Amino acid sequence: MSETLNTLETLRKETAKILNVETVDTNVGLGELGIDSLNVVELIVFCEQLYGSIDPEQLNITQYTTLEQLDTQLQEQQQTA
């Protein structure tokens, strides 16, 4: 469980960095955080570094997806890989 918390925290910090803000809420949808399509590409590239090999086409990313949900999806992908 601590690995999940670590990846979520790292994902939160990187998202804040991408958006050039101090912090972001992991339970708020990406659209509400201000992430646009270019930011999503940056985020996916970062996720590939953080989680290892991922299949972006298998991710369900919408403006309502939270970082917590994204982290869960990526963790599940790693377990089935």
Automatic annotation (TrEMBL):
Coiled coil: none
Pfam families hit by this protein: PP-binding (PF00550)
Residue span, Carrier domain: 2-78
UniProt cross-references to InterPro entries, sorted A to Z: ACP-like_sf (IPR036736), PP-bd_ACP (IPR009081)
Protein name: Acyl carrier protein
Organism: Chromobacterium sinusclupearum
